[in-house]
Amino acid sequence: MIIENILAAFVELGTIKTFILMMVGVAGGLIAGAIPGFTIAMAVVLTLPFTFGMPAPQGLATMVSVLVGGLSGGLMAGILTGIPGTPSSVATTFDGFPMARRGEPGLALGIGVWSSFSGGIISAILLVTLAPQLARIGLEFNPWDYFMLVMFALTITASLAGENMVKGLIAGAMGLLIRTVGEDEAIGMARFNFGSDTLLQGFDFIAVLIGLFAFSQLLRDVRDPVAARKSLTDKGTIYVRIEHRRAVREVLKRWTIVVRSSLIGVFTGILPGAGGSIANILAYDQAKKASKHPEKFGTGIADGIIAPESSNNAVEGGALIMMMALGIPGDVTTAVMLGALLIHDVIPSPTFIAEEPLIAYSIFISFFLATFMMLGLQSFMLRVFVLVTRIRMYVLAGVILGFCGIGVFAINNIEFDIWTLVWFGILGFLMRHFGFPLAPMILGVVLGNIAELNLARAMAITTDISPFFTRPWSLFFFTIAIFSAVFPLFQGHRGKKKWTLFYLPVACFAVSVPLYMMGGVTRPILATIVLAYGAYTLWRRAQGGWQLEAVKRHDLVEE
Amino acid sequence: MDRLNRDAIIAIVLLVFCGVFFWATFDIRQPDYGVLMPSTWPRAILGILTFLSVIYLVQSLRQGADETELEDTACEPGIRGWVLYWRNPLWCFGLFFVYLATLPVLGMLIGGVSFVFVLLNVLGGWDRKNLVLHAAVALLAIGGMWSLFTFGLGVLLPPGMILGQF
Q: Engineering a disulfide at A308: which of A43, A91, A429, B122 sits with its beta carbon 3.0 to 4.6 angstroms away?
């Protein structure tokens, strides 16, 4: 069955037109990722209007290609100029730039490219194997569980989004509220249209996304008149030749770092809201901790390039696993992918892979193909990158603002969508300025109707609200939502307050309860392991006389 | 404006916003069927949003006034200083509004090219060399995109009153 689906997807994608579109997508992604100030999410969002007229597998393959290209593009700017192209390549600059300055830019780029490739392939393999399994678990979910899963996704996104969790939660709630404008999902009654017929249809999701993300980012990029008139990059070594053979040898010698960092990337991607910007720092930190010579990190060693680049490419595989198996986007880029699926009348849910195998496997296969294309195109795009760096930021921003107008109009052929774009552009700009994270808001907009529909379904079955807290999966998501909400507080007080000593053991005890309730064989065993670990941690702390642990502070700062 | 005042004002604006929207939930028609009323979910969200806004207000009142953002310190005091500091985004918004308002007349091609041309000159300077370059960029970029959508993807973009006559 899997082989049949893979073959069918290959046949669907195996046209010259699709290959050309994917190549253009990877190339565009590589350039977008390489430009400091432009994000991968922005590139994927701007690609969306071009895919409306395409069949779903072709359109999604193009978007996946932009995504894969974007993930690898950041390393070019990071290694050659010291300015990370995207937040996911921040840690790459720690060792990539020093290596390039030492006179080995070709080797640094080669290691980056091959690490990205390895991370991408590992995560693609996990995507194909894990997504259907997770979807099978998702079939156990009832409306109560689904509702709680959405609440968990919003809570964890808010807690990971920034230093001020309240702002993150406000942004998430605003996102949910935006989605309620127009006719309600369950019975079609008008809400918050203030007498306007146009508002009855609600705000178009894509126009909201482009406004919030792309429009507001472009305005920030041109805020400083002097910086806006400068070329994107003026410094750094630019003319280089990628040293593939030497790079492959270096990467193969450090295969354990590749595997570990890729797994960190996939796991981070599965968590809603935690994207490449977290994964690359986390993987770098782990590589440093595990190294026999941690003092060499930051001086231009291969380990310091391999770890972040393997992990940031693996992140999207993890995010796609969550999106395809459960319909919950792992980050903003997968939220856009989910929007693309909705445009093609496909609603991601646990039954998605079983009911739409062609589309699902097209995404899997295009992820693989795009990773190979990225490898081939990187050398060529390096030359284009040199040309792009000469363009002044205001030219790029002005042209893209013009594109935004055309692209958004093309969604539904109505002018109102362009007004939506500009209003949400203003909102996004203000939110960024006042320190509100945008990711929870985007997830709120995407998941708002899913939450409401499941709440309505749950209420239609019984008006009793206790199943939200007594069903095993609901309780599981509720528990981890609570602990993820408290996590920023725990991080802030770790090593300073006594109660932080109990955080991990109590979390383990609490999570084991719903796992026991789920029954079967595997889950109670897992619950016992979690419980035992919690008890062991508590025992060790009691043995240590409840002394506060010294928290190791690392000199890693995420931009 | 320092952070203390700014955050407190945002929190108050949010509370007013919640109040207005909560009031608007009473205009939502309540049908005789269905268990979850159409106003229940928005009210639940507004309840949470109000609660969070109150926490945000309390937090901002507790914070010190010295936590001003670096970005704001670069802005000169007074309205003139504020406008000067934010002039580029203000130009972008203003020109985009003009572009939208004139869309029924100019259409997407003429309007889009004009918008990008004027915006590039405003942001990059009006000298003679730039004028030619900006005109070429606007024409090629928007003209190319318009052609791609019109002829390649078959999307009917607004022709406007001028091009609509042909």
A: A91
Answer yes or no: do B89 and A174 touch at CB < 8 A: no
Q: Which residues make Cβ contacts (< 8 Å) with residue A262, sequence separation at least 6?
A: A118, A119, A122, A123, A310, A311, A313, A314
**pLDDT band (50, 70, 90) for residue B70:** very low
- Within 10 A of B120 (CB to CB), how many other CB atoms are there? 26
Task: Say whether both B62 and B111 belong to one domain.
Answer: no
- Of A413, A422, A429, which has the smallest distance from its Cβ to B156's Cβ? A413
Residue B80 belongs to some domain of the structure? no
Contact yes or no for A207/A420 (Cβ under 8 A):
yes
Co-location of B56 and B96 in the same domain: no
Question: Which of B40, B74, B108 is a domain's end point?
Answer: B74
Give pLDDT, residue B15. Answer: 96
Q: A381-404 pLDDT, tens per residue?
A: 877 777 777 788 889 889 988 988
Residue A377 structure tokens: 């195109």
The ranges of chain A with pLDDT < 70 are: 36-37, 160-163, 232-239, 273-275, 549-559
**pTM exceeds cut of 0.80:** yes
The pLDDT value given to residue A556: 41
**B138 and A189 in contact by Cβ < 8 A?**
no
In a domain, B128, yes or no: yes
Tell whether B79 is covered by a domain: no
* Closest in B24, B93, B123 to A398, CB measured: B123
B106/B70 same-domain check: no
Residue B68: its pLDDT value, please? 45
**Is residue B2's pLDDT more than 60?**
no
Residues B91 and B24 in one domain: no
For residue A409, which residues of chain B lie inside 8 Å, CB to CB?
108, 155, 157-158
Question: Into how many domains does chain B fold?
Answer: 2
Same domain, yes or no: B69 and B108: no
Residue in chain A lying closest to B130 (CA): A395
φ, ψ for residue A540 (rounded to 5)? Answer: -60, -40
> B133 and B97: one domain?
yes
